[in-house]
Model the fold of this input.
Amino acid sequence: MTDLAPDQTLATLLRIADALERIAPAPRKAADLTLADAFVWQPAGSDLVPVAKVNRVALSLLRGVDRVRDTLAENTERFARGLPANNVLLWGARGMGKSSLVKSVHADTNQRLDGEALPLKLIEIHREDIESLPALMGILRVDPHRAIVFCDDLSFDGDDTSYKSLKAALDGGVEGRPGNVVFYATSNRRHLLPRDMMDNERSTSINPGEAIEEKVSLSDRFGLWLGFHKCSQDEYLEMIDGYVAHFGLKFAAEELRRDALEWSTTRGSRSGRTAWQYIQDLAGRLGTRLED
Done:
């Protein structure tokens, strides 16, 4: 190797330094939770992306879920006021307003606090990003705001082991869950795992009981389990009537009842989602815009 002149050595070192600078990850930006009341977590850049307008409905329009609504609202308000509160798992029948309830309760809580405390933040984390939850917790831990970390349609399948990251972030680890964070999740499954996966653990494990216990213990990290069940015909029609009154849709009562029941029959389902889909169809036929 030939010796380089001092100026050549310096130039080479500068080029190396520039190359390293270009490939080095960008410094993490401090999260600014004052930009909005709701955010979406993007782990690739450790970013909290503000949501200008949250897709939600008024809390008064969520019918047939009075008990779970009141329980979730009480837990959320206690948390927003700095009092002890639980992580919450909302589980059960599809289309019954689990995720809608979380978003509506968040907005309603901030409205009722009305400046008594810092605004409560809602941060959505996608199911596939659960392994990055500890990083998100680290960012929120040093922020003065209180935050609900929300994961919609949370479940685990096959050989997925990311549930271990969730367990550690919720209760385990040296640091534990930050005092200014609670975790809300919705799922169609009470134990977040399919029955065939749990049965497979029983048949293949040396100690089946311990294998099952590890997975079921994930649900134990949630202090509140709020169950959602299929609604009755009367509850379904009550949802329809609530939407019709709220949006001022003009339709004869008897014809509305008959039309709404036919809609649910053709879909083989009665739920809040079915009721909302019917209202969208009805408003379209009436030439009415649905504006809140």
In short: The chain has two domains: 38-228, 233-286.
